[in-house]
Amino acid sequence: MDKKPMSERYIKLSEAELQSGLDRVTHAELMIAQMPRDHGGANTWLLNYGKGTRGVDLRERHGVKFIEQTRCAETTNSKGKDGG
């Protein structure tokens, strides 16, 4: 298990990502854009990890915050015992 703090962990981009300028999240969002808008799995992924307008819209609609440090939506554990 990596003991480094989250802020010191980095994803190493592949040669294709470096060449295209698209990271994994953007690539996934482009693939999801081809799916039906009501696709449950796609919307769940966008809600949790999407950084484009659809992900932002879903989080706003459901009142879910995005945590920049972890680059994903808050979880029930990230809210703490008092819910806030």
Secondary-structure map with pairings?
Blueprint: H1 15-20, H2 24-32, H3 40-49, H4 53-62, E1 66-67, E2 72-73
Antiparallel strand pairs: 1-2
Question: Short description, anyone?
Answer:
By secondary structure, this protein is mainly alpha-helical. It contains 4 helices and 2 strands, in the order ααααββ. A two-stranded antiparallel ribbon has the order 1-2.
Major sheet, described briefly?
2 strands, antiparallel
Q: Given the C-alpha coordinates, what overall shape results?
A: flat
Q: Summarize the helix and strand pattern as letters.
A: HHHHEE
Output the strand order for the largest sheet.
1-2
Span between termini? 29 Å
Output the structural class: mainly alpha
Contiguous low-pLDDT stretches (5 residues minimum) are 80-84
Radius of gyration: 15 Å
- Structural domain tally: 1
Taking all residues together, what is the mean pLDDT? 81
Number of strands: 2
Notes on the structure:
With 84 residues, the chain is mostly helical. It has one domain (13-74). Helix content is 42%, strand content 5%. The chain is built from four helices and two strands. A two-stranded antiparallel sheet has the order 1-2. Strand 1 and strand 2 (72-73) form a beta hairpin. The two termini are 29 Å apart.
What distinguishing features does this structure have?
84 residues, mainly alpha, 4 helices, flat, disordered C terminus
